[in-house]
Design a protein that fits this description.
The complex is a heterodimer.
Chain A lengths: L1 H13 L4 H18 L9 H19 L2 H15 L6 H9 L4 H33 L5 H28 L3 H28 L9 H6 L7 H11 L13 H4 L6 H17 L14 H25 L9 H24 L10 H19 L14 E8 L6 E3 L2 H14 L8 E7 L4 E6 L3 H13 L3 H9 L8 E7 L5 E4 L6 H16 L3 E2 L7 E13 L5 E10 L5 H15 L4 E3 L2
Antiparallel strand pairs in A: 1-2, 1-3, 3-4, 5-6, 5-8, 6-10, 7-9, 8-9
Chain B lengths: L1 E10 L2 E11 L4 E5 L6 H8 L7 E6 L2 E2 L4 H5 L1 E4 L11 H11 L5 H7 L17 H14 L4 E5 L7 H18 L2 E5 L3 H7 L2 E6 L2 E7 H7 E8 L6 H4 L4 E8 L2 E7 L2 H9 L3 E7 L3 H10 L11
Parallel strand pairs in B: 3-8, 3-9, 6-7, 7-8
Antiparallel strand pairs in B: 1-2, 1-4, 4-5, 9-10, 11-13, 11-14, 12-13
The chains are: A alpha+beta, B alpha/beta.
Chain lengths: 586, 302
């Protein structure tokens, strides 16, 4: 009865917060309905209309299940239902009521969750109904995204509740929530920048690495953002179906979600009410706050300072300078944390010197450990945990991908040999691990030596492996859609229609294989050699218009008399004859 | 009854309550007085279970208060600065209280509305004046039919008629329902009229706790004149605990602490020409008591 009273009081008090989401959701549903009932259906074929409708539905369903949006949505509802903890008068009044803190916590918790979930579920239900009304046939994907969204909202709401109980004010709650959500990104970003300043090899700050790094689990919104992008099955045959294999691991996030409720509940029971409006509600949290604030703030300010003051690579600061600047900003942030806690600038009376020393030492351990290679990637020992290796060098025209275990192993060995060389850094090895992690190394490159290693590897490849190596997918050549070769006038002949018969195509494929094996064509860029450019369709990658991506690949011809070169010339001549190609002159 | 034993409460190293002991008998009106910052509000918040004491205990009818909904069911609290939900009117609040307090009597609430004719139950409380908000708080608290009512500056901001009205309702409830009231106020003249027990606090400690009549019996204002004009009543008697002495000619006015009989005996032993006891108000007792702990009105010459 008492819990019910509190629950409905919250709903009655805070239902105006529904106005904005309901308005926004209503607008989105109307837009979807308009898109699906587009008058273009009178001009497009039935299949094209369906594609358009699916694309519109998919776009909206992905938008409203985007973890970044869900994380933003969950925070205000947690803050408003527990807002009384930040107002002394309100908190005191609630504490005098004859209801236990446990009941009070869960009443507020459930009212906030209801306020958050009801409009959102109405939106998802609306999308489902509209999609089914127009028979877009995406129920699997919509259901998958709904489950994903509910898990996300539940997790983020619980995290927001825990931070609201932990902290004594809206701003601090929001800051802590933001820090927890983005901690992985922050650590990795800072690690990358410090690694660059300290010239540490094998450490890079790329988007992929933030998403797949071992730290990403620390930040749910980052980890789930990646899962969100992979929820949809990529294969053409199963487009707009849910990739349940990727969704299932998300269920594990229910464990931290429930742990966070437990944590929030326990903190709520023990929360001293007199700490309303304080930055942190618990005295034990103050040292933690000081240390984390000075750690994060020290690193952030150092990076900002270095970015502003250092111009270009030549002006790169020394390690000692970096340590001094880091320590300086660490001390500054520690004092600032004390000012925030005590709400006065006169903080040096009873100043926690010991904690300050611990904070600065911890802060300095960060760049020291980076310089010692603690945050650097290690070259994989073997190919067991590697999905593929991507190599980029300035003497090959495009990235090459090696999926074959023996091939990967041969390049691991080659890389280990390269690491001792100091002759430059223009070859990039990128190992894509089974865990999703990407390990990138930029290494010195001896062009001839690398070319030899790659050609030796090609010698060992069969046709399928060779096609995989050169075109990243053995199927791609099957959908050859055009060839370009240089013409006698210094321009090039661009033939963009595939008129090869099945037999001719097999002949062409065989000639290409032989030319690569016989080293009569090469994937290495060399201006002295003539080239042939193959256009083919990548059926595994769809454009926004649900069409396979058109992909081009250059090959360099060492022997103009080889079968592959002859067939290419023939192909182009034939295309010109039937006037389906066109000639472009530079 | 409410019993507090050895209560300590500190905030960031500041000791607001320092081993405070008190005892509020059932059916009494207990006035808690003390200078600003003495710890009165903190003590009331510990008593109502808002704050958890660092050490010591508070019991109401032998039950703890902190995190004890059963005890809180019998308790109502009107703070000095009342709070209402932004979107609530008085009737909404009454329904809210009805959901939380089993003993909440809606009929009584509606009847008591007649005693506060200016209150509009449909008007948003946040739009009411401070005095009307106080009246609303009192109305809600009384409708909960509490056994114990804790009041922190209850009539602050009320006009004289409403002050009388509130005290009248309060005393009726005390006499008819044996309600226990613990009230903190700086308006000592009003407290004197309603309280039967008084506790004087300073620096987080309870200096004195007695029934008002005992207290008035124990601190006395005496006018005395001696046959020998050179007799000094303070110097001539070791047994007298004189809190303040003023002299006009041969007549000395003394504020003396102790039993009346002992004071008479001690003064008459010095051959008095005049010995007269004058009534002492609570305000005077407060001022003289705290004067003894160096909290007094200081003269300043510009």
């Amino acid at each position: 009865m008492k819990s019910k009273t509190l629950f409905f009081k919250d709903i009655k008090q805070f239902w105006p917060f529904w106005i904005f989401p309901l308005f926004a959701y209503g607008f989105l549903l109307l837009s979807l309905n308009t898109s699906l009932s587009s008058p273009l259906k009178h001009y497009l074929g039935k299949e094209d209309v369906l594609y358009e409708q699916q694309a519109a539905t998919d776009s909206l369903a992905h938008l409203v299940s985007n973890p970044l949006i869900l994380a933003t949505l969950a925070l205000p509802f947690a803050l408003i239902v527990f807002s009384y903890l930040n107002k002394t008068k309100h908190a005191y009044m609630m504490a005098t009521f004859p209801i236990s803190r446990t009941k009070m916590f869960f009443s507020h918790y459930l009212s906030g969750l209801t306020l958050l979930m009801v409009p959102y579920l109405l939106l998802q239900g609306g999308i489902f109904l509209i999609a089914n009304h127009y028979k877009v046939g995406m129920n699997s994907l919509l259901l998958g995204l709904l489950i994903f969204s509910v898990i996300n909202l539940f997790l983020y709401y619980n995290l927001a509740v825990a931070t609201a109980v932990f902290s004594g004010g809206y701003i601090m709650s929001s800051v802590i929530y933001l820090v927890l959500q983005l901690l992985a990104g922050f650590i990795y970003y800072c690690t990358g920048l410090y690694g660059e300043i300290l010239s540490v090899v094998g450490i890079r700050c790329t988007t992929d690495n933030i998403f797949y790094s071992k730290f990403s689990s620390l930040s749910p919104v980052i980890k789930l953002y990646i899962t969100h992008s992979m929820l949809e099955a990529n294969e053409i045959e199963t487009a707009y179906a849910c990739n349940w294999d990727k969704l299932t691991p998300c269920l594990w996030y229910l464990i931290p979600a429930f742990l966070l409720i437990f944590l929030g509940w326990q903190m709520y029971k023990k929360r001293p009410l007199e700490t309303a409006k304080e930055f942190v509600a618990f005295s034990w949290a103050k040292p933690l706050f000081r240390v984390i604030f000075s750690f994060c703030g020290g690193i952030l300010l150092t990076i900002v300072f270095i970015t502003i003051t250092v111009n270009g690579e030549d002006d790169s600061p020394s390690a000692a300078y970096l340590y001094i600047i880091t320590a300086f900003f660490g001390v500054l942030c520690f004092i600032l944390s004390e000012i925030l806690l005590k709400k006065t600038i006169r903080v040096f009376q009873n100043f926690p010197w010991k904690q300050g020393i611990v904070a600065v030492v911890l802060l300095l351990l960060f760049p020291i450990s980076i310089s010692q290679g603690l945050f650097s990637y290690k070259v994989p020992k073997n190919a067991n945990n590697i999905v593929y290796l991507r190599i980029q060098a300035n003497n090959i025209s495009d990235t090459i991908t090696i999926k074959n275990a023996d091939g990967i192993q041969s390049f691991i060995d080659y890389q280990k040999g390269l690491e001792n060389s100091q002759s430059g850094d223009d070859i990039s090895f990128q190992y894509i691990m089974k865990s999703g992690e990407t390990r990138t190394f930029t290494l010195p490159n001896n062009e001839k030596e690398f070319q030899q290693v790659l050609e030796d590897y090609i010698d060992t490849c069969d046709q399928t492996m060779l096609e995989t190596l050169v075109f990243q997918n053995p199927l791609k050549l099957k959908y050859l859609s055009g060839i370009s070769i240089p013409d006698e006038n210094g321009g090039y002949c661009d033939c963009s229609s595939n008129i090869l018969s099945e037999e001719e195509f097999e002949l062409y494929r065989e000639s290409l294989y032989q030319a690569l094996k016989d080293k009569k064509v090469s994937i290495f860029a060399d201006e002295s050699l003539s080239w042939v450019c193959l256009d083919f369709l990548d059926l595994t990658t769809l454009t926004n218009h649900n069409e396979p991506l058109l992909y081009s690949r250059y090959l360099y011809i060492r022997d103009e008399d080889c079968e592959f070169a002859r067939l290419s010339r023939e192909y182009c001549e034939r295309m010109q004859e039937i006037d389906e190609g066109e000639i472009i002159y530079d | 009854m409410i019993i507090g034993k050895e209560i300590c409460k500190s905030f960031n190293g500041f000791l607001a309550l320092d081993h405070t002991n008190f005892h509020v008998p059932k059916g009494s009106v207990y006035g808690l007085v003390g200078p600003n910052g003495a710890g009165k509000s903190t003590l009331l918040r510990v008593v109502t279970g808002i704050f958890q004491a660092d050490s010591g205990s508070v019991t109401i009818n032998e039950q703890g208060v902190y995190e004890n909904p059963k005890t809180k069911e019998t308790l109502a609290f009107i703070p000095d600065d009342v709070f209402y939900f932004n979107t609530a009117n008085l009737m909404d609040m009454a329904k809210y209280y009805q959901g939380l307090y089993q003993n909440f009597n809606m009929e009584q609430f509606k009847k008591m509305m007649d005693c506060f004719p200016e209150l509009d139950s449909k008007k948003l409380i946040r739009k009411m004046s401070k005095g009307m908000q106080k009246q609303s708080a009192f109305l809600l608290a009384m409708a909960c039919q509490p056994e114990v009512l804790i009041l922190d500056e209850p009539v602050d901001g009320l006009d004289p008629v409403m002050r009388k009205q509130i005290w009248s309702l309060l005393l009726t409830a005390v006499s008819e329902k044996q309600m226990t009231v613990m009230v903190s106020s700086h308006n000592l003249r009003e407290l004197e009229d309603v309280c039967d027990h008084v506790g004087i606090m300073n620096h987080g400690k309870l200096l004195i706790e007695q029934s008002l009549s005992d207290m008035q019996e124990n601190i006395l204002k005496v006018q005395v004149a001696f046959a020998d004009p050179n007799t000094d009543p303070v110097l001539s008697s070791d047994s007298l605990q004189v809190l303040k002495k003023t002299s006009t000619g041969r007549v000395h006015t003394l504020i003396v602490k102790g039993p009346r009989a002992d004071i008479v005996e001690s003064l008459e032993a010095q051959n008095t020409l005049l010995l007269e006891f004058l009534p002492l108000s609570l305000e005077e007792i407060f001022i003289y008591e705290l004067g003894g702990v160096n909290y007094e009105v200081k003269d300043f010459i510009f």
